[in-house]
Design goal:
Strand 5 and strand 6 form a beta hairpin. The relative contact order is 0.07. It contains eleven helices and six strands.
Length: 379
């Protein structure tokens, strides 16, 4: 599997930027600790090496940049910081540290090995913080590597080979380490993407009917339970419609099961089209039976949906040579209204009873729990 596969580019870009932001935040905390160390050393140990007042002035920009970062992250949250803000802050942080290093070099009255060590530590800190993005990492650590090499050369001009060797070795070690760590990082992201896809597929298999591509019985049971709780809490009506394709077994015997499956798919699509609100649900209840869940819908509204289904089926004209009521596919429908504190099973029993009455009335019709509605009344 290629790491540069187009399927993963968007995810890799998002994850890389997220890790970069976290790395920069970590580098900010480390920088704050290092700033405190520099201040402590200046005050307690190195005052005879530096003009302390001049040095403190040079530390102000770094302290301001760190304070700005920590305040922004605390007030807005890490994930709300934009790409532009992140890179601008990183530039300010690197520039501030560069100013501190140059100030330490020029303000010291004699050679200070600690200045070179501080630059080396900054190289390691930013290499670890920015490892997912090689170009950004290299552009940040190069100034510190160059400073360390130049500073050593100026202090020990007779040993120019050493700073050059150190510069190249540091750079090669960091680049090779970054390649290895970044490879692990990208592979981990790809595995995570694949796991999410598998979980999504498993969830779909658990909730979606494989033939009709609508919700299955398990999903319907879960939704009905949640909607009944919502209806009780909000005191809103909740209706369901139980539908059965008329004379479906003779259709299978006449046209074959393959055609029967095709008709199940078409009826499911039609039922989905009949629903206009996001919360409405259609599911395959079993075999040739379907069920609709209609939140915030009373019996009158449910009757309108049932009539719409009948009309759409008539217009679709799905041939049914074995039907005793029409030349085309028809459905019988039973409509029930949820009544607090009714459980889902009793609501389904009443809908099933209404469906039985619709079949007894000659099929191709719908019956609600209050009064039967014939085909001629349907609009």
């Amino acid at each position: 599997m290629a790491l540069n596969s187009h399927r993963y580019q968007a995810q890799l870009k998002r994850e890389t930027f997220t890790i970069l932001k976290r790395g920069i935040l970590w580098a900010s905390y480390v920088s704050l600790a290092m700033l405190c160390v520099v201040l402590a050393n200046t005050y307690y140990f190195d005052r005879h090496y530096y003009d302390a007042g001049a040095l403190l002035i040079k530390l102000v920009p770094l302290a301001a940049v760190l304070g700005l970062c920590l305040y922004t992250v605390k007030s807005k949250g890490l994930f709300k910081v934009t790409v532009t803000q992140t890179y601008v802050y990183l530039g300010l942080l690197v520039s501030s540290w560069s100013l501190v290093l140059v100030s330490l070099a020029f303000l010291s009255k004699q050679n200070m090995p600690g200045v070179e060590s501080l630059a080396d530590i900054l190289v390691l800190v930013f290499a670890l913080a920015l490892f997912p993005h090689r170009n950004i990492m290299v552009s940040v650590i190069l100034p510190f590597l160059a400073f360390s090499a130049v500073y050593h050369s100026l202090q020990f001009s007779e040993a120019i080979v050493y700073p050059l060797t150190k510069f190249l070795c540091f750079l090669m070690v960091i680049l090779s380490g970054q390649k290895i760590i970044a490879g692990w990082f990208f592979k981990a992201i790809i595995r995570n993407v694949e796991k999410k896809k598998l979980l999504s597929q498993f969830k779909r298999l658990a909730l979606i009917d494989g033939l009709t591509n609508i919700s299955n019985r398990r999903h319907f049971d879960d939704v009905l339970l949640q909607e009944s709780k919502a209806a009780a809490r909000n005191r809103q009506p909740l209706s369901i419609i139980l539908l059965d394709i008329d004379y479906f077994k003779p259709l299978n015997d006449t046209l074959g099961h393959q055609v029967g499956d095709e008709y199940l798919v078409k009826v499911a699509e039609l039922l989905n089209q009949a629903l206009e609100r996001p919360r409405d649900l259609v599911a395959r209840y079993g075999g040739e039976e379907f069920v609709m869940v209609l939140p915030n819908t009373d019996l009158r509204g449910a009757n309108c949906v049932a009539a719409k289904v009948q009309q759409m089926l008539r217009e679709e004209k799905l041939s049914h040579p074995s039907s005793a009521v029409a030349k085309y596919i028809t459905v019988s429908q039973g409509i029930a209204l949820w009544q607090a504190p009714e459980v889902a099973s009793s609501l389904l029993e009443r809908a099933d009873s209404m469906l039985y009455q619709a079949k007894a009335n000659g099929r191709d019709g719908f019956v609600s729990q209050t009064e039967p509605v014939s085909n001629k009344q349907a609009v």
